[in-house]
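dumping the sequnces here before i forget
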Amino acid sequence: MSFWFTLKEGLKGFQRARLATVITVTSIAFALLLIGYFAVFVLNVDALIGDFKSRFEIEVFLDADANDEIGNKISTQIKTLEGVAAVEYVDKAKAAERFENEFGRSVYDVLESNPLPITCIVTLKEDFQNTQSIGKISDKIKTFKYVDEIVYQGDLLVLIDQYINLVYLIAGGIGLVLCLIAFILLYNTIRLTIFARSDIIEIMKLVGATSKFIRRPFVVEGFMQGFLGAILACGLLFLSIKLIMRFVYPYIHNQMEPYIVLTIFGIFIGFLSSRMSVSKYLQ
Amino acid sequence: MIEFYNVNAIIDGKDILKNISFRLLKGEFAYLVGHSGAGKSTILRLIYMDLMPVEGMVIVEQYSSAKIKPRDIPYLRRHVGVIFQDFKLLPDRNVFENVAFAMRVIGAKSSEIKRKVLRVLAEVNLGHKRNHYPDELSGGEKQRVAIARAIINNPFIVLADEPTGNLDTVSANEIMEILEKINRQGTAVLMASHNEGLIQKYPHRIINLKDGVMQKI
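..and the predicted 3d for all of it:
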């Protein structure tokens, strides 16, 4: 009985204070939309970094006197190292082919014999795509006999590793501030709607309703407002990103995660802020 | 049943009641009289524990102001009916729903609510207006709805804070007749009033207050 009463009262709250409900839902939607844009931006930066890292390679050049048998053996040895995802074995002939593809001339046009060394191109697992792990793996490879030189694009990786934590920290901080702003905004908007309905609270108290009972319809209302605000925010976010992709920048990663997070967060702040506002009012 | 022991009350730093002691017996009808600001409403608030004494003690049935926990106050209020000069009705609900509201908040069943509300509305002669909204009612009718809401949960006392203050003489007499009837059925009534005419017409014990102090009559 009290469940249905709570639900009915919560939904009636929408009807009773239509304007306040519209203002609250819109406030939630715009606060969440801001968080949504920020989340999409951070996810795209993260995806770009991930993409760069996934294409990262270590080139291992062997001595000129290393033959295919030795090359294959070293390639297998590298494969067994922790953190190595794959090893592409490039023999002398394939290296010459690559040379021709890159420079447009055969190596034999310039020289009498093929001086290009056997090469192992090593790609790393995601967790090992950082300067520290690369250094360790490269040090291990260096100890192998017949390994002449190891080359990788370390500068950019060092730069990313150096600043990525700071970037994520700043992003986390901004995200937290945005969430806090959304919460304070909603908390105050819901407080206003509660003040506007002080008559019903007063009567509930007068006829012996417990604080828990009084709180429930407002929490249901806050929950619904949060949900509707989140749905509106998701719709606006989706539409605006589609428009940006169509007219400005088509390479945005438009993933599901921000939408799911926004919906859960919207419901959560709706629930929490209404609960806190009404509890404070009842005190 | 209701006992005040040397009660002092302060509101916004002002002494409102000073050393008030009295006892109200089961089924008694009493008036609280005194000019505005004498402390009549404060006594009523102390009974339904909307306010706590700074000194002394108020006992309402098994509840004592000295011992009651905030979470128990709603349960005390379920045994106390309160009516006000300004009715305090919910404007967006009809007469039936306004009265039923007092039962819904304590988790009563729908069938019980319907049966009891219709019976109580009949008692206050408002059965025919159960689907009307407060703004479609006269002042007297609004007060009768408020009385129906106050008595729906069978309280042992009805506290009436100037219930006839906004009403004409005919409506005021109707309200008094209803309160008399409720009292005859065994419910105590404590009514704050200015209206000397009504007090003389419906004579009962008088608790006289002047500047927060009880006066001997």
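Strands of chain B lie at 2-11, 14-24, 29-33, 55-60, 63-64, 80-84, 157-161, 188-193, 205-210, 213-215.
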